[in-house]
Protein backbone atom coordinates (compact mmCIF):
# COMPACT_ATOMS: atom_id res chain seq x y z
CA UNK A 1 0.00 0.00 0.00
CA UNK A 2 1.27 3.52 -0.69
CA UNK A 3 2.44 5.26 2.41
CA UNK A 4 0.41 8.31 3.48
CA UNK A 5 1.02 11.20 5.85
CA UNK A 6 0.42 9.86 9.31
CA UNK A 7 2.62 11.46 11.96
CA UNK A 8 2.23 13.03 15.37
CA UNK A 9 3.32 16.53 16.25
CA UNK A 10 6.25 16.05 18.53
CA UNK A 11 9.00 18.62 18.83
CA UNK A 12 11.89 16.59 20.25
CA UNK A 13 14.15 19.34 21.51
CA UNK A 14 11.59 20.86 23.82
CA UNK A 15 11.23 17.61 25.74
CA UNK A 16 14.89 16.78 26.36
CA UNK A 17 15.12 18.47 29.74
CA UNK A 18 14.56 16.01 32.55
CA UNK A 19 15.80 12.53 33.38
CA UNK A 20 14.29 9.54 35.20
CA UNK A 21 10.66 9.03 36.23
CA UNK A 22 8.20 6.20 36.74
CA UNK A 23 5.22 4.44 35.21
CA UNK A 24 1.91 4.53 37.05
CA UNK A 25 -0.82 2.03 36.18
CA UNK A 26 -2.58 1.78 39.52
CA UNK A 27 -4.59 5.01 39.81
CA UNK A 28 -8.34 4.67 40.22
CA UNK A 29 -11.01 6.62 38.44
CA UNK A 30 -13.20 9.28 39.96
CA UNK A 31 -11.26 12.56 40.02
CA UNK A 32 -13.81 15.17 39.03
CA UNK A 33 -12.90 18.31 37.15
CA UNK A 34 -15.28 21.17 36.43
CA UNK A 35 -13.04 23.89 35.09
CA UNK A 36 -11.84 22.37 31.85
CA UNK A 37 -15.05 21.60 30.01
CA UNK A 38 -14.41 17.85 29.80
CA UNK A 39 -17.63 15.97 30.25
CA UNK A 40 -16.65 12.35 30.74
CA UNK A 41 -16.11 12.48 34.52
CA UNK A 42 -19.32 10.59 35.18
CA UNK A 43 -17.95 7.89 32.86
CA UNK A 44 -15.09 7.38 35.30
CA UNK A 45 -17.42 5.73 37.78
CA UNK A 46 -18.23 2.84 35.48
CA UNK A 47 -15.33 2.85 33.05
CA UNK A 48 -13.52 4.97 30.51
CA UNK A 49 -15.17 6.86 27.68
CA UNK A 50 -15.25 5.00 24.37
CA UNK A 51 -14.02 7.20 21.51
CA UNK A 52 -15.88 5.98 18.45
CA UNK A 53 -15.00 6.04 14.76
CA UNK A 54 -11.62 7.76 15.19
CA UNK A 55 -9.31 8.14 12.21
CA UNK A 56 -6.30 5.98 12.94
CA UNK A 57 -2.88 6.13 11.27
CA UNK A 58 0.32 4.09 11.45
CA UNK A 59 3.69 5.10 12.90
CA UNK A 60 6.72 3.26 14.23
CA UNK A 61 9.83 3.73 16.30
CA UNK A 62 12.84 4.48 14.11
CA UNK A 63 10.77 6.07 11.34
CA UNK A 64 12.78 8.74 9.56
CA UNK A 65 11.56 12.27 9.00
CA UNK A 66 10.21 12.83 5.50
CA UNK A 67 7.62 14.81 3.59
CA UNK A 68 5.29 11.86 4.14
CA UNK A 69 5.21 12.31 7.91
CA UNK A 70 5.48 16.05 8.38
CA UNK A 71 9.27 15.81 8.77
CA UNK A 72 8.92 14.42 12.28
CA UNK A 73 11.37 11.63 13.02
CA UNK A 74 10.53 8.81 15.41
CA UNK A 75 13.92 7.96 16.85
CA UNK A 76 12.68 9.50 20.09
CA UNK A 77 9.22 9.78 21.55
CA UNK A 78 7.71 12.43 23.77
CA UNK A 79 8.99 10.78 26.94
CA UNK A 80 12.05 8.81 25.86
CA UNK A 81 14.79 10.44 23.81
CA UNK A 82 16.35 6.99 23.26
CA UNK A 83 13.12 5.25 22.29
CA UNK A 84 14.47 3.50 19.20
CA UNK A 85 17.55 2.28 21.04
CA UNK A 86 15.60 1.13 24.08
CA UNK A 87 13.17 -0.63 21.76
CA UNK A 88 16.11 -2.39 20.10
CA UNK A 89 16.02 -0.97 16.59
CA UNK A 90 13.71 0.22 13.84
CA UNK A 91 10.24 -1.31 14.07
CA UNK A 92 10.16 -1.82 10.31
CA UNK A 93 6.52 -2.00 9.16
CA UNK A 94 7.21 -3.91 5.95
CA UNK A 95 9.46 -6.74 7.18
CA UNK A 96 7.75 -8.54 10.04
CA UNK A 97 8.12 -11.72 12.05
CA UNK A 98 4.68 -12.17 13.50
CA UNK A 99 3.95 -9.00 15.45
CA UNK A 100 7.63 -8.07 15.78
CA UNK A 101 10.20 -6.72 13.32
CA UNK A 102 11.98 -9.49 11.46
CA UNK A 103 15.51 -8.33 12.25
CA UNK A 104 15.51 -8.47 16.05
CA UNK A 105 13.47 -9.23 19.15
CA UNK A 106 12.20 -5.96 20.62
CA UNK A 107 13.02 -5.03 24.20
CA UNK A 108 9.73 -3.19 24.62
CA UNK A 109 6.11 -3.84 23.72
CA UNK A 110 5.55 -3.83 19.93
CA UNK A 111 1.90 -2.97 20.62
CA UNK A 112 2.10 0.77 21.20
CA UNK A 113 0.13 3.89 20.32
CA UNK A 114 0.23 7.68 20.37
CA UNK A 115 -2.45 10.10 21.56
CA UNK A 116 -2.40 13.90 21.23
CA UNK A 117 -1.68 14.85 24.81
CA UNK A 118 1.51 15.28 26.87
CA UNK A 119 1.40 15.73 30.63
CA UNK A 120 4.56 17.88 30.33
CA UNK A 121 4.57 21.30 28.74
CA UNK A 122 6.90 22.56 26.00
CA UNK A 123 9.50 23.53 28.59
CA UNK A 124 9.58 20.02 30.01
CA UNK A 125 7.66 20.97 33.15
CA UNK A 126 4.81 18.91 34.56
CA UNK A 127 1.43 20.44 33.81
CA UNK A 128 -0.23 21.53 37.04
CA UNK A 129 -3.83 20.77 36.14
CA UNK A 130 -3.55 17.12 35.07
CA UNK A 131 -5.62 15.90 38.03
CA UNK A 132 -8.54 18.02 36.88
CA UNK A 133 -9.10 16.04 33.69
CA UNK A 134 -7.07 12.79 33.71
CA UNK A 135 -9.44 10.29 35.26
CA UNK A 136 -6.77 8.13 36.87
CA UNK A 137 -4.72 11.05 38.16
CA UNK A 138 -4.65 12.11 41.78
CA UNK A 139 -3.70 15.40 43.35
CA UNK A 140 -0.61 13.70 44.74
CA UNK A 141 0.83 13.02 41.27
CA UNK A 142 3.40 15.75 41.65
CA UNK A 143 6.60 13.92 40.71
CA UNK A 144 8.21 16.38 38.32
CA UNK A 145 9.91 13.64 36.30
CA UNK A 146 7.04 11.12 36.18
CA UNK A 147 4.57 10.81 33.34
CA UNK A 148 1.18 9.46 34.34
CA UNK A 149 0.37 8.95 30.66
CA UNK A 150 3.32 6.91 29.41
CA UNK A 151 2.73 3.14 29.37
CA UNK A 152 -1.02 3.42 30.05
CA UNK A 153 -3.08 0.73 28.36
CA UNK A 154 -5.48 1.45 25.49
CA UNK A 155 -8.16 -0.82 24.07
CA UNK A 156 -8.49 -0.47 20.29
CA UNK A 157 -11.48 -1.87 18.38
CA UNK A 158 -11.93 -2.55 14.67
CA UNK A 159 -15.13 -4.38 13.82
CA UNK A 160 -15.13 -7.61 15.82
CA UNK A 161 -11.40 -7.45 16.57
CA UNK A 162 -9.90 -5.95 19.73
CA UNK A 163 -6.22 -5.16 20.37
CA UNK A 164 -4.50 -3.65 23.39
CA UNK A 165 -1.55 -1.27 23.27
CA UNK A 166 0.51 0.94 25.55
CA UNK A 167 0.58 4.71 25.22
CA UNK A 168 4.18 5.54 24.22
CA UNK A 169 4.11 8.78 22.24
CA UNK A 170 2.25 12.01 21.56
CA UNK A 171 0.29 12.63 18.38
CA UNK A 172 -0.84 12.56 15.63
CA UNK A 173 0.01 16.19 14.85
CA UNK A 174 -1.18 17.55 18.21
CA UNK A 175 0.27 17.38 21.70
CA UNK A 176 -2.23 19.22 23.88
CA UNK A 177 -5.75 18.04 23.16
CA UNK A 178 -7.15 16.91 26.54
CA UNK A 179 -10.76 17.65 25.58
CA UNK A 180 -10.52 14.87 23.00
CA UNK A 181 -8.19 12.43 24.78
CA UNK A 182 -9.99 12.54 28.13
CA UNK A 183 -13.34 13.96 27.07
CA UNK A 184 -15.93 13.68 24.32
CA UNK A 185 -14.67 16.37 21.93
CA UNK A 186 -13.50 15.61 18.41
CA UNK A 187 -9.73 15.69 17.73
CA UNK A 188 -8.35 19.20 17.14
CA UNK A 189 -6.05 17.89 14.42
CA UNK A 190 -7.36 18.39 10.89
CA UNK A 191 -4.68 16.44 8.97
CA UNK A 192 -5.40 12.98 7.56
CA UNK A 193 -9.15 13.19 8.05
CA UNK A 194 -8.69 14.58 11.60
CA UNK A 195 -6.60 11.63 12.76
CA UNK A 196 -6.77 11.11 16.52
CA UNK A 197 -4.77 7.93 17.08
CA UNK A 198 -1.43 6.57 15.88
CA UNK A 199 -0.81 2.83 16.22
CA UNK A 200 2.21 0.59 15.71
CA UNK A 201 2.69 -1.99 12.95
CA UNK A 202 1.79 -4.75 15.43
CA UNK A 203 -1.59 -3.15 16.15
CA UNK A 204 -2.08 -2.58 12.43
CA UNK A 205 -1.42 -6.23 11.66
CA UNK A 206 -3.56 -7.58 14.50
CA UNK A 207 -6.55 -5.46 13.48
CA UNK A 208 -5.82 -5.64 9.74
CA UNK A 209 -5.81 -1.85 9.37
CA UNK A 210 -5.16 0.26 6.31
CA UNK A 211 -2.58 3.07 6.49
CA UNK A 212 -5.47 5.43 7.26
CA UNK A 213 -8.43 3.69 8.85
CA UNK A 214 -11.18 4.03 11.46
CA UNK A 215 -11.15 2.47 14.94
CA UNK A 216 -12.72 3.03 18.32
CA UNK A 217 -10.62 3.20 21.45
CA UNK A 218 -10.73 3.69 25.21
CA UNK A 219 -8.38 3.59 28.17
CA UNK A 220 -8.29 0.41 30.21
CA UNK A 221 -6.67 -0.38 33.55
CA UNK A 222 -3.78 -2.81 33.49
CA UNK A 223 -5.67 -5.37 35.59
CA UNK A 224 -8.34 -5.55 32.88
CA UNK A 225 -5.97 -6.21 29.98
CA UNK A 226 -6.41 -9.84 28.85
CA UNK A 227 -3.56 -12.10 27.86
CA UNK A 228 -2.49 -11.80 24.26
CA UNK A 229 0.51 -10.93 22.10
CA UNK A 230 0.52 -7.45 23.73
CA UNK A 231 1.38 -9.06 27.08
CA UNK A 232 4.51 -10.93 25.90
CA UNK A 233 6.69 -7.83 26.40
CA UNK A 234 5.33 -5.04 28.58
CA UNK A 235 7.04 -1.65 28.51
CA UNK A 236 7.96 -0.34 31.95
CA UNK A 237 10.69 2.17 31.14
CA UNK A 238 10.13 5.60 32.57
CA UNK A 239 10.71 9.11 31.28
CA UNK A 240 14.21 9.36 29.84
CA UNK A 241 15.26 12.80 28.59
CA UNK A 242 19.03 12.69 28.35
CA UNK A 243 21.06 15.26 26.43
CA UNK A 244 24.31 14.55 24.62
CA UNK A 245 26.63 16.25 22.14
CA UNK A 246 25.63 16.11 18.46
CA UNK A 247 28.56 17.19 16.25
CA UNK A 248 27.53 18.70 12.94
CA UNK A 249 28.78 17.62 9.56
CA UNK A 250 31.49 20.30 9.24
CA UNK A 251 33.06 19.79 12.69
CA UNK A 252 36.86 20.07 12.45
CA UNK A 253 38.99 17.64 14.43
CA UNK A 254 42.36 16.43 15.66
CA UNK A 255 43.20 12.80 16.41
CA UNK A 256 46.12 11.95 18.68
CA UNK A 257 46.39 8.79 20.77
CA UNK A 258 50.12 8.69 21.59
CA UNK A 259 52.87 11.10 22.64
CA UNK A 260 52.60 14.40 24.44
CA UNK A 261 49.24 15.86 23.53
CA UNK A 262 49.42 18.93 21.29
CA UNK A 263 46.50 21.11 22.35
CA UNK A 264 47.29 24.05 20.06
CA UNK A 265 45.22 23.08 17.00
CA UNK A 266 42.36 25.41 16.19
CA UNK A 267 39.75 22.73 15.76
CA UNK A 268 36.29 22.03 17.16
CA UNK A 269 36.98 18.55 18.50
CA UNK A 270 39.82 16.45 19.90
CA UNK A 271 39.81 12.64 19.75
CA UNK A 272 42.19 11.40 22.47
CA UNK A 273 42.93 8.29 24.53
CA UNK A 274 40.53 7.62 27.41
CA UNK A 275 43.07 5.94 29.67
CA UNK A 276 46.12 8.07 28.95
CA UNK A 277 44.43 11.45 29.27
CA UNK A 278 43.68 12.81 32.73
CA UNK A 279 40.61 14.79 33.73
CA UNK A 280 42.52 18.06 34.02
CA UNK A 281 43.68 17.86 30.38
CA UNK A 282 40.13 17.18 29.24
CA UNK A 283 38.87 20.09 31.33
CA UNK A 284 41.53 22.38 29.84
CA UNK A 285 40.51 21.45 26.29
CA UNK A 286 36.87 22.07 27.10
CA UNK A 287 37.76 25.42 28.64
CA UNK A 288 39.17 26.35 25.22
CA UNK A 289 35.74 25.61 23.78
CA UNK A 290 36.72 22.26 22.27
CA UNK A 291 34.69 19.07 22.48
CA UNK A 292 36.51 15.95 23.65
CA UNK A 293 35.98 12.45 22.28
CA UNK A 294 37.67 9.68 24.27
CA UNK A 295 39.06 6.64 22.50
CA UNK A 296 38.98 3.09 23.85
CA UNK A 297 38.86 -0.34 22.29
CA UNK A 298 35.52 -2.07 22.67
CA UNK A 299 36.44 -5.16 20.66
CA UNK A 300 40.00 -5.97 21.67
CA UNK A 301 41.99 -6.72 24.82
CA UNK A 302 45.03 -4.52 25.38
CA UNK A 303 47.41 -6.00 27.90
CA UNK A 304 48.76 -2.63 29.08
CA UNK A 305 45.42 -1.10 30.11
CA UNK A 306 44.76 -0.56 33.81
CA UNK A 307 41.66 -2.77 33.72
CA UNK A 308 43.38 -5.65 31.85
CA UNK A 309 43.05 -7.86 34.94
CA UNK A 310 39.26 -7.68 34.63
CA UNK A 311 39.23 -9.72 31.40
CA UNK A 312 38.85 -13.49 32.03
CA UNK A 313 40.76 -15.79 29.69
CA UNK A 314 37.62 -17.09 28.00
CA UNK A 315 37.02 -13.59 26.64
CA UNK A 316 40.32 -13.51 24.76
CA UNK A 317 40.64 -14.68 21.19
CA UNK A 318 43.34 -14.48 18.53
CA UNK A 319 45.95 -11.74 18.31
CA UNK A 320 45.25 -8.66 16.23
CA UNK A 321 47.62 -8.73 13.30
CA UNK A 322 50.15 -5.90 13.54
CA UNK A 323 49.18 -4.84 17.08
CA UNK A 324 51.41 -6.20 19.81
CA UNK A 325 49.73 -7.16 23.07
CA UNK A 326 46.23 -7.00 21.60
CA UNK A 327 43.68 -9.79 21.22
CA UNK A 328 40.15 -9.99 19.88
CA UNK A 329 37.30 -10.27 22.37
CA UNK A 330 34.18 -12.43 22.46
CA UNK A 331 31.56 -9.73 22.11
CA UNK A 332 28.77 -12.17 22.99
CA UNK A 333 30.00 -12.53 26.56
CA UNK A 334 28.02 -10.75 29.30
CA UNK A 335 31.19 -10.13 31.33
CA UNK A 336 32.56 -8.01 28.50
CA UNK A 337 29.49 -5.78 28.63
CA UNK A 338 30.08 -5.16 32.33
CA UNK A 339 33.68 -4.12 31.60
CA UNK A 340 32.59 -1.81 28.80
CA UNK A 341 29.99 -0.16 31.02
CA UNK A 342 32.79 0.65 33.47
CA UNK A 343 34.84 2.19 30.67
CA UNK A 344 31.90 4.33 29.64
CA UNK A 345 31.47 5.34 33.29
CA UNK A 346 35.13 6.39 33.27
CA UNK A 347 34.55 8.51 30.16
CA UNK A 348 31.63 10.21 31.84
CA UNK A 349 33.54 10.79 35.08
CA UNK A 350 36.54 12.27 33.24
CA UNK A 351 34.33 14.77 31.44
CA UNK A 352 34.47 13.37 27.91
CA UNK A 353 31.78 14.66 25.56
CA UNK A 354 31.70 11.40 23.65
CA UNK A 355 33.52 8.18 22.87
CA UNK A 356 35.16 6.42 19.94
CA UNK A 357 34.84 2.66 20.46
CA UNK A 358 37.41 0.85 18.34
CA UNK A 359 37.55 -2.66 16.84
CA UNK A 360 33.80 -3.10 16.50
CA UNK A 361 34.04 -5.18 13.34
CA UNK A 362 35.33 -8.44 14.78
CA UNK A 363 32.74 -10.49 12.89
CA UNK A 364 34.61 -9.62 9.66
CA UNK A 365 37.99 -10.71 11.07
CA UNK A 366 39.67 -13.92 12.23
CA UNK A 367 38.95 -13.49 15.93
CA UNK A 368 38.99 -17.11 17.06
CA UNK A 369 35.27 -16.85 17.78
CA UNK A 370 32.32 -17.74 15.56
CA UNK A 371 30.90 -14.22 15.46
CA UNK A 372 28.00 -13.41 13.15
CA UNK A 373 26.96 -10.08 11.64
CA UNK A 374 23.97 -10.19 14.00
CA UNK A 375 26.31 -10.57 17.00
CA UNK A 376 28.18 -7.48 15.88
CA UNK A 377 25.06 -5.41 15.28
CA UNK A 378 23.74 -6.32 18.72
CA UNK A 379 27.03 -5.47 20.45
CA UNK A 380 27.52 -2.19 18.59
CA UNK A 381 23.98 -1.12 19.43
CA UNK A 382 24.69 -1.99 23.05
CA UNK A 383 27.78 0.24 23.10
CA UNK A 384 25.89 3.10 21.45
CA UNK A 385 22.90 2.87 23.78
CA UNK A 386 25.05 2.66 26.91
CA UNK A 387 27.04 5.69 25.78
CA UNK A 388 23.98 7.81 25.08
CA UNK A 389 22.36 6.78 28.36
CA UNK A 390 25.37 8.40 30.04
CA UNK A 391 24.94 11.56 28.00
CA UNK A 392 27.88 10.69 25.76
CA UNK A 393 28.04 11.14 22.01
CA UNK A 394 29.23 7.97 20.29
CA UNK A 395 31.05 7.31 17.04
CA UNK A 396 31.06 4.21 14.84
CA UNK A 397 34.62 3.13 14.07
CA UNK A 398 35.02 1.62 10.60
CA UNK A 399 32.58 -1.37 10.23
CA UNK A 400 31.52 0.01 6.87
CA UNK A 401 29.44 -2.97 5.82
CA UNK A 402 27.00 -2.30 8.68
CA UNK A 403 26.80 1.48 8.38
CA UNK A 404 23.26 1.46 6.99
CA UNK A 405 21.90 -0.49 9.96
CA UNK A 406 23.98 1.28 12.61
CA UNK A 407 23.94 4.93 11.54
CA UNK A 408 20.74 5.76 13.48
CA UNK A 409 22.42 4.60 16.70
CA UNK A 410 25.61 6.66 16.26
CA UNK A 411 26.34 10.38 16.17
CA UNK A 412 29.43 10.37 13.95
CA UNK A 413 31.80 8.03 12.17
CA UNK A 414 35.56 7.59 12.59
CA UNK A 415 37.03 5.90 9.56
CA UNK A 416 40.47 5.00 8.23
CA UNK A 417 41.68 4.81 4.64
CA UNK A 418 38.34 5.15 2.87
CA UNK A 419 40.00 7.10 0.02
CA UNK A 420 42.90 4.70 -0.24
CA UNK A 421 40.52 1.73 -0.46
CA UNK A 422 37.91 3.63 -2.50
CA UNK A 423 35.06 2.85 -0.13
CA UNK A 424 34.04 6.33 1.06
CA UNK A 425 30.64 5.90 -0.57
CA UNK A 426 29.73 3.41 2.16
CA UNK A 427 29.72 6.26 4.67
CA UNK A 428 26.96 8.11 2.81
CA UNK A 429 24.24 7.38 5.44
CA UNK A 430 26.10 9.53 7.98
CA UNK A 431 26.53 12.39 5.52
CA UNK A 432 22.87 12.23 4.48
CA UNK A 433 21.85 12.67 8.12
CA UNK A 434 24.18 15.62 8.68
CA UNK A 435 26.54 13.60 10.86
CA UNK A 436 30.29 14.09 10.48
CA UNK A 437 32.64 11.46 9.11
CA UNK A 438 36.12 11.87 10.61
CA UNK A 439 38.46 10.15 8.20
CA UNK A 440 42.21 9.48 8.47
CA UNK A 441 44.53 8.56 5.60
CA UNK A 442 48.03 7.10 6.07
CA UNK A 443 49.30 6.23 2.57
CA UNK A 444 52.76 7.60 1.66
CA UNK A 445 51.43 9.15 -1.53
CA UNK A 446 49.19 11.37 0.58
CA UNK A 447 51.91 12.16 3.11
CA UNK A 448 54.38 13.15 0.39
CA UNK A 449 51.71 14.62 -1.90
CA UNK A 450 53.34 12.74 -4.76
CA UNK A 451 52.06 14.04 -8.10
CA UNK A 452 49.46 16.06 -6.18
CA UNK A 453 47.88 12.91 -4.70
CA UNK A 454 46.97 14.60 -1.41
CA UNK A 455 45.43 17.61 -3.13
CA UNK A 456 43.30 15.37 -5.35
CA UNK A 457 42.27 13.20 -2.41
CA UNK A 458 41.31 16.28 -0.39
CA UNK A 459 39.18 17.56 -3.25
CA UNK A 460 37.40 14.19 -3.35
CA UNK A 461 37.03 14.34 0.43
CA UNK A 462 35.36 17.73 0.18
CA UNK A 463 33.03 16.41 -2.52
CA UNK A 464 32.08 13.48 -0.26
CA UNK A 465 31.57 15.81 2.71
CA UNK A 466 34.23 14.16 4.89
CA UNK A 467 36.57 15.67 7.48
CA UNK A 468 39.88 14.13 6.42
CA UNK A 469 43.34 14.26 8.01
CA UNK A 470 46.58 12.73 6.74
CA UNK A 471 48.31 11.34 9.82
CA UNK A 472 51.03 8.92 10.95
CA UNK A 473 49.71 5.43 11.72
CA UNK A 474 51.07 5.85 15.26
CA UNK A 475 48.73 8.83 15.73
CA UNK A 476 51.47 10.59 17.69
CA UNK A 477 51.26 14.05 16.04
CA UNK A 478 54.67 13.68 14.40
CA UNK A 479 53.00 15.28 11.37
CA UNK A 480 49.52 16.36 10.37
CA UNK A 481 47.95 17.50 7.11
CA UNK A 482 44.36 18.67 7.13
CA UNK A 483 42.21 18.69 4.02
CA UNK A 484 40.57 21.85 5.33
CA UNK A 485 43.43 23.88 3.86
CA UNK A 486 42.32 22.76 0.39
CA UNK A 487 38.70 23.61 1.08
CA UNK A 488 39.16 27.33 1.62
Radius of gyration from the CA trace? Answer: 25 Å
Uncertain spans, ≥5 residues at pLDDT below 50? 1-46
Share in helix: 10-25%
Instruction: Order the strands across the largest sheet as they lie in space.
Output: 9-10-11-15-16-17-18-19-20
Order of helices and strands: EHEEEEEHEHEEEHEEEEHEHEHEHEHHEE
The CATH homologous superfamily of the largest domain is named Aldolase class I
Secondary structure category: alpha/beta
Number of H/I helices = 10
Distance between the termini: 48 Å
What number of structural domains do the residues give? 2
What is the level 1 CATH name of the largest domain? Answer: Alpha Beta
Structural account:
The protein has 488 residues and is an alpha/beta fold. It has two domains: 12-231, RlpA-like domain (Barwin-like endoglucanases), CATH 2.40.40.10; 253-486, Aldolase class I (TIM Barrel). Helices cover 17% and strands 20% of the residues. The protein has ten helices and 20 strands. The protein has helices spanning 83-87, 178-181, 201-207, 279-287, 334-350, 373-389, 403-406, 428-432, 444-448, 453-464, and strands spanning 51-58, 96-97, 100-101, 112-115, 153-158, 161-170, 197-199, 212-220, 253-256, 269-273, 291-297, 300-302, 316-319, 326-329, 354-358, 393-397, 412-416, 437-441, 467-470, 481-482. It has a nine-stranded mixed sheet. Helix 8 (428-432) links the parallel strand 17 and strand 18. Helix 5 (334-350) runs parallel beside helix 6 (373-389). The longest helix is centred in the C-terminal third of the chain and has 17 residues, at 334-350. The relative contact order is 0.11. Mean pLDDT is 88; it is low at 1-46.
